[in-house]
Amino acid sequence: KGESHVEGEKVENPDTGLYYDEYLRQVIDVLETDKHFREKLQTADIEEIKSGKLSRELDLVSHHVRTRLDELKRQEVARLRMLIKAKMDSVQDTGIDHQALLKQFEHLNHQNPDTFEPKDLDMLIKAVSARYK
What is the DSSP secondary structure assignment for residue 19, as one 8-state letter? Predict the structure, then answer.
């Protein structure tokens, strides 16, 4: 039987191979729920996105979207902390520099673990762009 596609149905994208792929997808999904941001995203060229110009539009999204992005960031920070703890437990070395480990994660601002800011979106875009150069 042939399946008909419903308008607005999401198409599954292939895995990017990034260790933060799920976080990236969730951020994009939440941002696309904001009509203004979705329109800006659709009309922006790749240079506007890479330069961080699009990140400044984050200040104009709805409160609900910002709240959801904050929640996603806190979940991602918790996931990364769990990974760091697992790595530390496997090494059993008490001399590990936590800040140095956190700096490995360039897709978010680890110095502000509670709120998703334009800098976070900019860092996420730059991390993805660097991966595909």
Answer: T
pLDDT at 9 over 90: no
pTM: 0.69
User: How many Å apart are CA 87 and CA 89, to the nearest integer?
Assistant: 5
Sign of the dihedral through C-alpha 65, 118, 15, 98: negative
In a domain, 35, yes or no: yes
Instruction: Give the other-Cβ count within 10 Å of 22's Cβ.
Output: 15
Query: Is residue 9, in this structure, part of any structural domain at all?
Result: no
Residue 29 lies in a domain: yes
Domain that holds residue 63: 18-90+98-132
Give the Å distances, CA to CA, from 8 to 2, 11, 48: 18, 9, 26
Give the chain's domain count: 1
Choice between 105 and 4, residue whose per-residue pLDDT is larger: 105
